[in-house]
Amino acid sequence: MGSDPGDRDDPAALRARLDRLSSELKGRATPPPAPGPKREAKPDGAGSAMSLGLRAGSEFVSAVIVGLGIGWVLDRALGTNPAFLIVFFMLGVAAAVWNVIRLTSPKAASSNRNSPLSRTDSPDKDVRRSASGAGRDASLGGRGAADEADDDED
């Protein structure tokens, strides 16, 4: 670079060049980017529906292929040509349909329910509301609470 070619073998000159280059690199180094807000996937979005559909399809196909494979291996091993192939194909289709139904059905025990109506440990579950019920009866224009329940049956 601008120095004598004989200086390249000198360890002191190499160390000086290395120190000069490392100080230049430290001056040029850019700070790491600040972490931005993370984008969370929406559970109701199109991506979620697409992944559910792809998973259901792949589980269906894989269950049928596994059933066919087991039937084919049993037919080869026992010498019964299409018998086990047909039986295990049907079992594979049944297992595939069962897996897809199980995958796409709503879960009964969801832990993320936050509605006050879905909680079993509601603090006012067994409390009678007599004072607020009297005010509600007056606002109904003389009709009682029993008359209000009959309105739904028409």
* Alpha-beta content class: mainly alpha
> What is the β-strand count?
0
Oligomer: single chain
**Form type:** flat
The value of Rg in angstroms is: 37 Å
Give me the number of helical elements. 5
SSE ordering:
HHHHH
Key attributes of the depicted protein:
154 residues; mainly alpha
Short description:
This protein has 154 residues and is an all-alpha fold.
Descriptive account of the structure:
The protein is an all-alpha fold. The chain has five helices and no strands. Helix 2 (46-78) packs antiparallel against helix 3 (83-104). It is flat and about 85 Å long. The model has no long low-confidence stretch (mean pLDDT 76).
Question: How is the secondary structure organized here?
Answer:
Elements lengths: L10 H18 L17 H33 L4 H22 L25 H10 L5 H6 L4
Helix pairs in contact: 2-3
